[in-house]
Design brief:
The chain has helices at 16-28, 45-56, 134-137, 139-147, 160-163, 249-252, and strands at residues 4-9, 35-39, 67-72, 91-96, 101-105, 118-124, 154-158, 172-175, 181-186, 200-205, 208-214, 226-230, 239-244, 262-265. The chain is of the alpha/beta class.
Length: 268
C-alpha cells in the first residue's frame, strides 16, 4: 500500500528553500511516495500545529491511507542565548490513535493540536546541530526511514502531556488566503454556548474593535458584514472563524499576527 507524505514548513511558496528541501526528500524517498507541500508564515508554530491537526484528523474519505506528516517550523526560541554550531530544537515522532504518523520539530505549538490524539511520542536521533538547514541536510534521512517502516531512529519514549503544550486558547490559529481568520474557539467552548444566530457581538483583537454577527455558517450574513461562525476546520468539532463576506477579516482587524488574543463581548 502506497504511503503519502505531507510536508508543512515555514518557507514561502516557490522559495529556494522549498526547492532544496523537495530535492533532498526526493533523493531519499522511493519513487512511489507521493509528496505534497504546505507553507505557513515564518516562525509561526500556531499555524503549523493547526495545519497538522486539520490534515491528520480528516476522516478516511478525506485523507490518504498511510499518511505521514512532517512539520518543520523551527524558530529556535527554546533558548535565548547564542547557539553553538547552529543547534536547533529536537525532532519528535508521534503515532496517532487513527494511524497517522507525525514527525515534527519540537517547537512551540507545532504538535499541540494533535496532543490529545498521540498514542506514542518519541525523541529521535536526528542531528540537532551542524547545519543551519537541517530540514534539507538531516531530516530527510529520518523521514525516509519512517516511510519504509524502519524506526531505528527512535530514542526515548516521552509523555506527550508533559512535553507538548496545550493549544493556546481564544487566539487566531490560522489565516487563509482569503483573509478568513480561523480561531481556537471550538464547539463546546463556554462562550460559544451562550451565542444565538443573528446575535451581534463586539470582537476585540489588539487595538481594533469591530461588530460581528453570529452565524451558523460563514455565508449566512449580508455582503460586507463580518461573521463569527463555525468554519470548515475541526471536522466533527468545528473551529469558529471570523469571516468578512466579500472582503477580508484580516484586513478589517489591521493584519493581526497568528496567536493574537481574541475577546468576544456579548454586551454589544
Amino acid at each position: 500500500m502506497t504511503s503519502y507524505l505531507h510536508l508543512v514548513c515555514d518557507y514561502a511558496p516557490g522559495d529556494l528553500a522549498w526547492a532544496e528541501v523537495y530535492s533532498a526528500f526526493k533523493a531519499k524517498l522511493t519513487e512511489d511516495v507521493p509528496l505534497h507541500m504546505t507553507s505557513v508564515h515564518s516562525f509561526d508554530t500556531v499555524s503549523t500545529g493547526f495545519v497538522v491537526g486539520q490534515l491528520s484528523s480528516s476522516g478516511k474519505d478525506l485523507k490518504p491511507e498511510n499518511l505521514t506528516i512532517f512539520a518543520n517550523c523551527a524558530p529556535r526560541k527554546d533558548l535565548k542565548v547564542a547557539r553553538q554550531n547552529n543547534e536547533g530544537e529536537g525532532l519528535l515522532y508521534a503515532s496517532l490513535k487513527n494511524g497517522v504518523h507525525v514527525i515534527a520539530v519540537n517547537s512551540g505549538y507545532s504538535m499541540s493540536f494533535v496532543r490529545n490524539e498521540i498514542m506514542e511520542l518519541w525523541s529521535t536521533d536526528a542531528e540537532e546541530f551542524g547545519s543551519q538547514f537541517r530540514s534539507r541536510d538531516f531530516f530527510p534521512r529520518i523521514i525516509a526511514q519512517a516511510m519504509r517502516g524502519d524506526f531505528a531512529f527512535l530514542k526515548h519514549k516521552l509523555n506527550a502531556q508533559e512535553v507538548i503544550p496545550e493549544v493556546p486558547q481564544e487566539v487566531i490559529a490560522y489565516v487563509d488566503s482569503f483573509g478568513n481568520m480561523k480561531t481556537t474557539f471550538r464547539d463546546g467552548h463556554s462562550t460559544l454556548s451562550k451565542l444565538e444566530p443573528g446575535q451581534r457581538v463586539r470582537v476585540t483583537i489588539g487595538s481594533v474593535i469591530r461588530a460581528a454577527t453570529v452565524a451558523t455558517g460563514s455565508f449566512n450574513v449580508m455582503e460586507g458584514d463580518l461573521a463569527f461562525a463555525p468554519g470548515s476546520s475541526g471536522h466533527d468539532k468545528k473551529y469558529w472563524e471570523l469571516f468578512k463576506r466579500g472582503g477580508s477579516a484580516r484586513d478589517e482587524f489591521a493584519h493581526p499576527a497568528v496567536g493574537t488574543k481574541i475577546e468576544i463581548d456579548m454586551t454589544y
